[in-house]
Amino acid sequence: MHDTGHFVTGTDVARLTAHYEEQEDGSLKQRDQSTGHYTKKPTFFAGSTGLVSTSSDYFRFSQMLLNGGELNGVRILGPRTVAFMTQNHVSPETKRNFLLAAGHGFGLGFDVLLDNVKHGSPMSEGTYFWVGSAGCFFFIDPVEELVVIVMVQRTPQIVTTMKPEIEALVYQAIID
User: Fold this and answer.
1) pLDDT per residue as tens digits for the range 71-99
2) What residues of the chain score a pLDDT lower than 50?
3) How far is 153 from 172, CA to CA, in rounded Å?
4) Predicted pLDDT of residue 99
């Protein structure tokens, strides 16, 4: 994953995709990416926030997870590690405090679908996913052996309305 990090410099700044911000009147305005926070080295590197990546790197990472920690014959993580990362680690009491959606739990870095009926989703139970601050999101369904990545660059994010529609379209397209 050569194009993933917490910030970009030099000629890579020009490779940043457009990021749009909704205005009070509902119109969209493009942000100036050349001076954004992704062009400055952060003072704190968080493991689950603030990454900049390409769709290619994002896909390679997701495919590695779907493959149980292996990509192109190279073992990155053990299969038991991936299984542990993608299972629920949140108790019902803690879950209420985190305000997780119905039918969801949380693994080590991922939201995990525990009950697709409670969630009202066609995704398989055990699907894990994450949503980024600008609306980019992905989900990995181990049952269907499926990786879906959606790269949106808009704030405020519109994932709450868009994600269920994309889930429905993806799962309607599956032919057994």
Assistant:
1) 999 999 999 999 999 999 988 777 666 66
2) none
3) 26
4) 63
Q: What is the number of domains present in the chain?
A: 1
* pTM for the whole structure: 0.87
Residue with tokens 């994309």: 166
Domain annotation covers residue 82 = yes
Is residue 97 in some structural domain?
Answer: yes
Residue 65 near residue 112, CB atoms below 8 Å: no
Note whether residue 32 is domain-resident: no
Domain span at residue 147 reads 54-172
**Is residue 48 assigned to a domain?**
no
